[in-house]
Input
Amino acid sequence: MDVLYSNRILLDKYNIKPPKTWDEMIEVATQIKEKEKEENNEFLSFLSGYSDNEMAMCSAIEAIYSSRDTVDSEMPSFTSDNALRAFEKEIEVKEKISSCTKNIYLFFINILYISIILVFSYILFYI
Output
């Protein structure tokens, strides 16, 4: 499973703790994006692993896994209500805070770039 990388510089700047849920992530990204916009700072608020290749399937499985009822629950089936909620949440994330376009995704796919970008404060969250 992947992890959610958070930009501590931006979180610390606004005295915000890393989010623990997708809803918290949407809220935090929206808040910081608005505050940074007021300062004329541009950054990528969220990049996901959804692409036009097999990595999209990995991201889909991770989304379903994150929709378990509890951390000890089994992996939900692809036809479960949990899976449906997971994909609905992914759509919400994409619509509200995603910075991902095909060109941006292809540019940032290399983990070295992601590491550098996180260090220099241009991305708030990355999966």
